[in-house]
């Protein structure tokens, strides 16, 4: 007589680092309302970010579903140039990341993938002082994550790749015109977790 798979639920916390990867980072030449060159700007570096959060991991046999929530903080620097000066400007932003991972457990190794929502929380920026700038962050943006995990005793280590559906710098307009700073960003995310 077959035995039904027994469900199991784990609760854990996690923290880690992420590295944003940008392709085709463009230098933009911004014109003012009169069509005169105001300044040029490009992304200098999307710095490493950190995250801290919690998760539930529910098993049915070897399959699992893992909803998560984590506070994610990142910083980007920009090369900013006018006819009078060159300077580096910085922008920091925080998101609440909400992945929903589905996976299969092979013992200490697991494979996982799923969608992720990024809920905007806050930003602080040197860009606020640029004439003609408007910043409007989307309240919610979407992406996906896929990766591998290792479970040893009560600890787990995740290594994931994240792709996103938005373009980097979509929140910026200058003198009511939108400029593309980069293609869709990706991230490498490393997390260390502990199961209670």
Query: Could you say what the CATH topology is called?
Result: Porin
State the share of residues found in helices, binned by percent: under 10%
Q: What composes the largest sheet? A: 8 strands, antiparallel, barrel
Number of strands: 13
Could you list some keywords that capture this structure?
elongated, single chain, 70% strand, Porin, 196 residues, 13 strands, 3-stranded antiparallel β-sheet, mainly beta
List the helices and strands and how they pair.
Elements: E1 7-21, E2 28-31, E3 37-46, E4 49-60, E5 63-81, E6 86-105, E7 109-125, E8 133-135, E9 140-152, E10 155-164, E11 172-174, E12 177-178, E13 186-195
Antiparallel strand pairs: 1-4, 1-13, 2-3, 3-5, 4-5, 5-6, 6-7, 7-9, 8-11, 9-10, 10-13, 11-12
Describe this structure in words.
The protein is an all-beta fold. It has a single domain (7-195), classed as Porin (Beta Barrel), CATH 2.40.160.20. The protein is built from no helices and 13 strands. It has strands at 7-21, 28-31, 37-46, 49-60, 63-81, 86-105, 109-125, 133-135, 140-152, 155-164, 172-174, 177-178, 186-195. The chain has an eight-stranded antiparallel β-barrel with strand order 1-4-5-6-7-9-10-13. The mean pLDDT is 89.
């Amino acid at each position: 007589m077959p035995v039904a798979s027994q469900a199991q639920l784990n609760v854990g916390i996690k923290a880690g680092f992420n590295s944003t990867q940008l392709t085709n980072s463009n230098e933009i030449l911004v014109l003012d309302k009169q069509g005169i060159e105001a300044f040029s700007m490009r992304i200098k570096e999307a710095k490493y970010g950190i995250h801290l959060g919690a998760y539930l991991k529910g098993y049915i046999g070897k399959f699992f579903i893992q909803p998560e929530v984590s506070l994610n903080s990142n910083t980007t620097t920009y090369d900013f140039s006018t006819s009078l000066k060159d300077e580096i400007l910085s922008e920091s932003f925080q998101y609440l990341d909400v992945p929903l991972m589905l996976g299969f457990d092979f013992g200490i190794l697991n494979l996982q993938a799923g969608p992720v929502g990024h809920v905007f929380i806050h930003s602080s920026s040197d860009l606020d002082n640029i004439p003609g700038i408007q910043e409007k962050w989307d309240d919610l943006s979407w992406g996906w994550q896929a990766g591998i995990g290792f479970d040893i005793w009560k600890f787990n280590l995740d290594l994931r790749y994240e792709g996103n559906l938005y373009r980097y710098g979509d929140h910026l307009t200058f003198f009511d015109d939108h400029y593309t700073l980069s293609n869709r960003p990706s991230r490498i995310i490393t997390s260390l977790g502990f199961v209670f």
